[in-house]
Model the fold of this input.
Amino acid sequence: QVQLVESGGGLVQAAGSLRLSCVASERSLMTLPMAWIRQAPGKERELVGAISWSGRDEYYSDSVKGRFTISRDNTKNTLSLQMNNLKPADTAVYYCAASRYLVGALSTSLNSYDVWGQGTQVTVSS
Done:
């Protein structure tokens, strides 16, 4: 069974940084478009960043643009999210996800992603 496993979450003060990592259990997942998606308590899921399988195409939501950077190392089966200048509003569970069915470089639609990790908690204190 294919798996994605996130790590790197934790508690950080506002304006601090964290780096999330997501390791794929199979090399085949690294040929797919991938994304980071978050969900805060009582709120809908939000796609914050997406990246094509080659890494050449990226997307960021307006809420994180300029502060977050998505990247991937396909040789290490790893997807990353560098988060800088964190704000309390960034507090959420962060999931990495992959799309096995997407036709195209990447997607900003949550419904495109069908393989999800278990999530890692990020808490930003003010």
